[in-house]
Amino acid sequence: MTRTIAILGGTGPEGLGLANRLARAGERIVIGSRDAQRAQDAAKKLRDAIGSSTQLEGAANAAAVAQCDIALLTIPFNGMTGLLKELKTVWKPGTVVIDTTVPLAAAVGGAPSKMLGVWQGSAAEAARELLPKEVSLAAALHNLGASLLEGNAAVECDVLVCSDDEKAKQVASELAQKIPGVRAINGGKLENARIVESITALLIGLNIRHKVHSAGIRFTGLPL
């Protein structure tokens, strides 16, 4: 049975990049947006670029969630609370949510390389409070920037996956490794997302400082 992956906030650069990579890997993707037409237009443009047989659709966020088995949150942090409250009654039990959100100061007009303070400790922990208990959650894919996700070239980057749920951790790791060159690493409990999210701010600063768009991370001394 073919599973469906919803990418919420999928019309932004990060969401489109992940839709591109996962669709190329053969996954059925529904791009979600507040504006269904915008999502459909984005899906068509990406489908035309990859190939007409690609399983790519667009829908309003609620419609995308209602049909998905896995959902990726790729929305700005300042929109996360409102969206998850709006979707609270739409989730199907057993859905796996993968949160890529980073609480960057840019979300409120600050520097993109600075973090916002989050009362719960991390964006992922804040999301956990807003999701139904029947929904699993993993934090992952934070440090794969949109420019790395364009096209289909290998991405030389590790992805840390944090979760208190082994099923969610396994699903997130599997999806990450569908991107050529990416290695998924068990990052431990969900609370460790507060460390992983901050790595994104560091990478953005490195990109700015060195005038590049592709800074990533690799961990040495770990088994392949």
Core attributes:
alpha/beta, 224 residues, Rossmann fold, 8 helices, 38% helix, globular
State the CATH topology: Rossmann fold
**Category by helix and strand content:** alpha/beta
Fourth-level CATH superfamily: NAD(P)-binding Rossmann-like Domain
Task: Identify the CATH class.
Answer: Alpha Beta
- The SSE string, one letter per element, is EHEHEHEHEHEHEHEH
Largest sheet: 6 strands, parallel
Q: What number of structural domains do the residues give?
A: 1
Looking across the biggest beta sheet, what order are the strands in?
3-2-1-4-5-6
Tally of strands:
8
Q: What share of the residues does DSSP label as strand, in percent?
A: 15-25%
Shape: globular
Number of helices: 8
The CATH level-2 architecture is identified as 3-Layer(aba) Sandwich
Distance between the termini: 30 Å
Task: Please give the structural blueprint.
Blueprint (H helix, E strand, L loop, with lengths): L3 E5 L4 H12 L3 E6 L2 H15 L5 E5 H7 L2 E4 L3 H10 L9 E4 L23 H8 L5 E4 L6 H4 L7 E5 L4 H11 L5 E5 L6 H18 L14
Parallel strand pairs: 1-2, 1-4, 2-3, 4-5, 5-6, 7-8
Helix pairs in contact: 4-5
Short recap of the structure:
The chain is of the alpha/beta class and 224 residues long. It has eight helices and eight strands. The strands form two sheets. The protein has a six-stranded parallel sheet with strand order 3-2-1-4-5-6, sandwiched between helices.
Characterise the protein shown here.
With 224 residues, the protein is of the alpha/beta class. It has eight helices and eight strands, in the order E-H-E-H-E-H-E-H-E-H-E-H-E-H-E-H. Helix 4 runs parallel beside helix 5. Strand 7, helix 7 and strand 8 form a beta-alpha-beta unit. The protein has one domain: 3-Layer(aba) Sandwich (Rossmann fold). The strands form two sheets. Strands 3-2-1-4-5-6 form a six-stranded parallel β-sheet, with helices on both faces. Strands 7-8 form a two-stranded parallel sheet. The radius of gyration is 16 Å and the shape is globular.
